[in-house]
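Researcher: Please predict.
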Amino acid sequence: MTTQRTHKYLIVGAGIQSQAIAHYLLGKEDTALVTFFERDKDALERTQQRTRHLIKPNAALAGFVQGDVVKDEAKLRLLMSGACDVVVSAARYSLNVGLTKMAIDAKVHMVDLGGNNDVVAEQFALGDAAKEAGVAILPDSGICPGAGSVLTAHGLKRFPAAKNVHVYCGGLPQEKHRTSLGPLQYALSFDPSGLINEYDVICEIIRLGKRSQVQPLTEREEIDFPGIGKLVAVNTSGGISTMVETYEGRLKTLQYKTLRYPALREGDLDHWHYMKALRDLGWFKEKWTKLTVDGHPVTPRQVTEEMFRQTLPRDIPDQLALAVCLDDGLGNHFTLDILDKADPVTGLSAMQRTTGFSAAIEAWMLATGAITARGTLKHELHVPTTEFIHEWDECGITLHQCLSTNNVVALKP
């Protein structure tokens, strides 16, 4: 029996994550059309070339439309109304509130890659309007935030005695301690604006059962990650999204940290030392405009972002490490983890696979009706965890689940 191709998707943005999103959606037998909307002509053409080999005879179609989200709003609204069931925003997070309003007006579902707590709060303020329109808005749909919340919900279902949850995630070059990686021991795997946002914004956590806040780039700890070895983790913002609100009172501890390699040599400064120095010196500030380039004011953050773009290596094989560690405070632990690597066959990086595929899976779940709730949704409450993990497995992203116990603890099936 042949699956009927009925589902249509509109991807806003044609960057590297868009390519992974399209790779997943075009591979689905029920996809009829994937349309890209992108301001930059060169980026659109690169994605068109990258996507061409995915289009098979009698398969889904791909469309490519050049336009600006703000300047060409009428064109974008027309596409939403006629060319899609689900909008996937892979654009800058600053555009997501406007896109959310358009999606609600067009009565289509939307997922986005998120990246900013204030933006997500505005999207939740639109939840009643989305529910009234009969659509679902699912912000922060990537790896962390996004998939990490799905795995946390899955872990709490299987290990309901858990009181403490620690989430660790990091995109890393496959080869560590390479001189070409420089003193940061890091390669750029997504836009620097999102990276700096994680490093600069106050982090929300649960501590002693209550919502709390901590400064980013603090509370360093070393962990031994399976398949990699020693890594250094610090607090960063946004990785657990709405879970702090959801699990306050249910959990004693909920905290997110980002993983990076240690310094090249013992006693040297590592990635986090350099980032904290930049932040403390004001190089992440967005509003101070006393700097000028060719007579035009620029902010310290704009300068830092551009320096990252120009100096950090790109396009080298990467890996994505994610661990969700649950414990009950009595010596019993349940851990879910992945270590995904760049795929030389498809050319997709680990960051693309884990971030883009996760967003695409949720878009597909909305299109197929696997996610039934309406309004602005939370991953930990509304995404079917078993089905999500199954789709990850179909994509070759392998999740390991491990219980270590000092007592007898029954896991829920």
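Model: The chain is about 35% helix and 25% strand.
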